[in-house]
Design brief:
Layout lengths: L7 H34 L3 H36 L8 H33 L7 H24 L6 H25 L1
Length: about 180
């Protein structure tokens, strides 16, 4: 598997980028949720329209770049550090959840917000509250979960991680035995 060890400054810079991008994604999602709740609970058509249009700005201009930066910086960290991408279950889980939420942002959240704006522009009915709330609720749940597993690092090694650790331990144990033979 591809593995390049990052230098300490590169690792730290990648970690800062990853944490800032992840926090930004979380913050954007909280903003979307607040706007969605406002759109779903207000009785004012003007407030609904303003909230949904603001959601469109977030969805069209901010979410995808921040999501991609989070995904890319996480990949750099996993491939450039001993954590690896498929060595620890929590890293592997975070990768797939991040990839899934990035994909959902492109194919579900953004189109849902755009459909709500189009319906309002066509003087159609107000958007269904589920249309503007479901994406931010699911996203927020995933981001909180990935934050928790980043801190707790549960579940241990994957099968691949156990195999790599065993082969690494065997190599380390074999080196002193060979040195003893060479000195005798």
């Amino acid at each position: 598997m591809f593995h390049v060890k990052l230098s300490r400054p590169a690792r730290r810079a990648s970690l800062v980028v990853h944490v800032v991008a992840s926090a930004g994604w979380l913050g954007l999602t909280l903003g979307l949720l607040a706007l969605g709740i406002t759109a779903a609970t207000t009785g004012s058509a003007v407030t609904v329209e303003a909230s949904v249009r603001a959601m469109k700005l977030f969805a069209d201009w901010l979410l995808l770049p921040v999501a991609l930066l989070t995904l890319l910086s996480g990949l750099v960290l996993s491939l450039g550090t001993p954590w690896g991408l498929a060595r620890h279950r929590w890293v592997y889980t975070k990768f797939w959840l991040t990839l899934g939420t990035t994909t959902a942002t492109v194919f579900a959240l953004r189109p849902g917000v755009n459909d709500a704006v189009a319906a309002l522009a066509a003087d159609g009915p107000l958007p269904d509250p589920g249309d503007v709330l479901m994406g931010p609720i699911v996203s927020l749940s995933v981001y909180v979960f990935t934050t928790v597993i980043s801190i707790l690092k549960p579940w241990g090694l994957t099968r691949r991680g156990r195999r790599l650790r065993a082969s690494s331990s065997a190599r380390k144990a074999a080196v002193p035995a060979e040195r003893v033979r060479q000195t005798v």
